[in-house]
Amino acid sequence: MNLEDNDNQIPKNLINIITFNVRATRTIGDDGIIPWVNIGRGNEEILNLVDADEIVISESEITISIEYPLEEPVSFVLNSESGFTRKQLLIEIREKYLAIAKAQDFDVNTVDLVSLDVYKTNVGQIELTLEVDV
After folding, report:
1. How far is CA 79 from CA 20, 60, 124, 128, in A?
2. 8 Å CB contact between 87 and 11
3. Can you tell me the distance from the alpha carbon of 14 to that of 85, in angstroms, rounded to the nearest whole number?
4. Among 7, 30, 81, 96, which residue's CB has the most CB atoms within a 10 Å radius?
5. pLDDT digits 0-9 by tens, 71-130
């Protein structure tokens, strides 16, 4: 899929926001929930991810765009016949970040994934953008 073709599919409609909550291993706040996942500690935080196995996207193909902290955004396509869980999405995004970080020399420990904005293009394709905090 050509990224340029994707950009020509405007308008995109926001259809969902997927959040990532992690049970704190140390007490933080009243409820012990952290409302983000640190990409650098993703392997550890997956173990404490709230609703990790919930299918949050039922479509079988999605495109994910990573912008921060890159000079040029990177997009990649994922396929899954049974849809996508929070855990699957986190694993795929983390692996992509680790590969990019190695090539572009930045620290993934400074990237906190807060949520994913889920858009549907006018031709029905699902595109995700990352909301990150640094």
Report:
1. 21, 5, 15, 13
2. no
3. 19
4. 96
5. 899 999 999 999 999 999 999 999 999 999 999 889 999 999 999 999 999 999 999 999
Q: Give me the phi and psi of 46, to 5 degrees please.
A: -60, -35
pTM of the model: 0.86
CA 39 to mean position of chain CA atoms: 10
Q: Residue 18 half-sphere exposure, CB side, CA atoms within 13 Å? A: 28
Q: Per DSSP, what are the bridge partners of residue 116?
A: 18, 130
Contact criterion met (CB below 8 Å) for 73 and 2: no
The pLDDT of 33-42, averaged and rounded, is 92
Inter-residue contact 91 to 46 (CB < 8 Å): yes
